[in-house]
Design brief:
With 346 residues, the chain is of the alpha/beta class. It has twelve helices and ten strands. It is elongated.
Length: 346
């Protein structure tokens, strides 16, 4: 059995898909078990190749099933907490970033400024497992009774600093509707009020607000069969990448070089007002350069790459606040000219 830890959210699971596919290919005859939150179950099914999911949300404590895995793979963090959580399952081998604090002295060095997809592929490459960082596609669910061809405006994000102002989202939604788009406003249950505010300001009917009314599988279906996604740096943007649905994603304070769509995906546009840095694809580490890593939750992340809530502040990060409605609408025109699913060299 291969036990993989990724006890995080939608975007976190989506960025781990190439690594999960690589594990499936490398250990085709072994049972692949993913430790992730139960609510992600519909999305786990769309990844494919996962034999079982165990409900793990965060870093425990957690009581593992009695059968010890042959290998445990840490796709969650740099340690020490996540390393210790997996060691409690008593695997014969732990595949993870080097972390002296957790007593794990093998594995590659953790790089703080590395794209999330590249990070986990590089980890597996270090352990001799071939990966393909471009293998981001999810299985396409059937739409059922959900709207098809809609343009999705998703104004929410976990951290206030990653939320573009609602009046600007509303201005974009209003203009999209004027151009003939069927606009839907999505979000988590706790973002229902925000979604209703955006819809009301945009002059959209109440039926256009789907925030809190879809599970993760239904959200994936909306995106898979949608026309356009306009959102901040949050999970729905990764779904747009997975399905080749045209998207305009607004970044700040985290650079799209760390969490954005690949640069060759022409139907996606990541708007970013910070310094220009590019993807760094996985490369082997020199063993002498290995250094211990720490769990992201074990100490504050630098502000330029923090994904969780900001310790202080009550509004969007300046890099995000500097993005204008006109910038977003121009990007919409650009990705619509390019066409959904367009990828250089395809």
């Amino acid at each position: 059995m291969i036990l993989v830890l990724r006890a995080l959210g939608i975007g976190d699971l989506a960025t781990a898909v190439p690594a999960l596919r690589a594990l499936r290919a490398a250990f085709a005859r072994e049972r692949l078990v993913l430790a992730a939150p139960r609510w992600l179950g519909p999305l786990v099914e769309l990844v494919g190749g996962i034999d079982e999911q165990v409900d793990v949300d965060g870093l425990g404590p957690y009581r593992w099933p009695p059968m010890a895995p042959e290998r445990a793979v840490n796709l969650h963090g740099r340690g020490p907490q996540s390393h210790r959580l997996l060691r409690a399952a008593q695997p014969r081998q732990l595949m993870a970033f080097a972390c002296a604090e957790a007593g794990h002295h093998v594995g590659p060095v953790w790089r703080p400024d590395e794209h999330e997809v590249a990070r986990w592929c590089r980890l597996l490459d270090w352990y001799g497992i071939a990966t393909d960082p471009s293998d981001l596609a999810l299985h396409r669910p059937t739409p059922g009774e959900l709207p098809v061809g809609a343009s999705i405006v998703h104004p929410g994000a976990k951290a206030v600093e990653r939320r573009w102002p609602p009046d600007r989202f509303a201005a974009v939604a209003r203009e999209l509707a004027r151009r003939g788009h069927r606009v839907l406003v999505t979000g988590a249950p706790g973002e229902r009020d925000l979604a209703e505010e955006v819809a009301a300001r945009a002059g959209l009917p109440g039926s256009a607000v789907l925030a809190g009314r879809t599970d993760v599988g239904e959200l994936a279906a909306l995106v898979a069969h949608g026309r356009l996604v306009v959102a901040g740096d949050t999970g729905i943007g990764h779904l747009a990448t997975a399905y080749g649905t045209a998207s305009v994603l607004l970044f700040g304070p985290v650079s799209p070089a760390l969490w954005g769509p690949p640069a060759d995906r022409l139907c996606h546009r990541a708007l970013w007002a910070g310094p220009a840095i590019g993807w760094r694809l996985p490369t082997p580490d020199i063993p002498a350069a290995r250094q211990p890593g720490r769990e992201p939750s074990g100490q504050p992340e630098p502000a330029h790459r923090r994904k969780g809530p900001a310790p202080t502040g009550s509004g969007p990060h300046p890099a995000l606040a500097s993005l204008r409605v006109a910038d977003v609408l121009a990007a919409v025109e650009e990705v619509e000219r390019t066409g959904p699913g367009a990828v250089a060299g395809r």
